[in-house]
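ok, trying the design again with the full structure, not the truncated one.
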């Protein structure tokens, strides 16, 4: 028999296609310290797998166990969901989180997030760069084009989003039009980097 937390976790995995133990800990067990929350999340996911509701695999890129229903996710998508789970973990109220498409689907950032935190509103466009040396200058020029040509006041709640480059060696890029911040894949100093 499934209890309410089981149903909530399954709804989350159904909506986002997969989740790691760490992500479930951040989203559903954040009231506990890290070690206890991780243990509760691990046990809960293992129980759901034993019930044959979920399947699992070890992702060799993220080095995490991943639980899913139908289809395995790429490491790229898992890093994107790490970002999402950290927003919830710090207490952000998520208004929108999606994979956007611009310029007739020729430019697709990894995520757009609109969220509230501490009484303020934030918008972010996320670039996950786990396998490149750094995000290419060409991609950054597409953000400049987006700034110049898109109806971003309507699209982005009145303010052009902060560009977050999440990666091993994120590109150093400065723009007169928008803010670019770098974030490691381990999400260290997440709230300080994201909310400064």
């Amino acid at each position: 028999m499934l209890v309410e937390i089981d149903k909530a976790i399954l709804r989350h995995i159904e909506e986002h296609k997969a989740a790691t133990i760490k992500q479930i800990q951040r989203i559903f067990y954040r009231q506990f310290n890290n070690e206890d929350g991780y243990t509760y999340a691990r046990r809960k996911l293992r129980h759901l797998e034993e019930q044959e509701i979920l399947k699992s695999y070890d992702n060799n890129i993220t080095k995490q166990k991943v639980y899913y229903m139908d289809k395995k996710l790429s490491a790229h998508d898992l890093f994107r969901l790490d970002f999402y789970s950290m927003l919830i973990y710090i207490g952000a109220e998520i208004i929108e989180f999606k994979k956007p498409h611009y310029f007739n689907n020729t430019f697709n950032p990894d995520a757009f997030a609109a969220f509230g935190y501490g009484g303020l509103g934030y918008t972010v466009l996320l670039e996950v760069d786990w396998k490149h040396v750094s995000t290419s200058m060409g991609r950054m020029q597409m953000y400049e084009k987006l700034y110049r040509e898109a109806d971003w006041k309507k699209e982005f709640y009145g303010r052009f989003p902060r560009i977050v480059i999440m990666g091993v060696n994120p590109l150093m890029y400065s723009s007169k039009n928008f803010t670019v911040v770098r974030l490691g894949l381990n999400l260290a100093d997440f709230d300080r980097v994201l909310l400064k």
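Keeping the full-length input from now on. Helices lie at 4-16, 21-28, 34-50, 75-89, 137-149, 152-155, 190-195.
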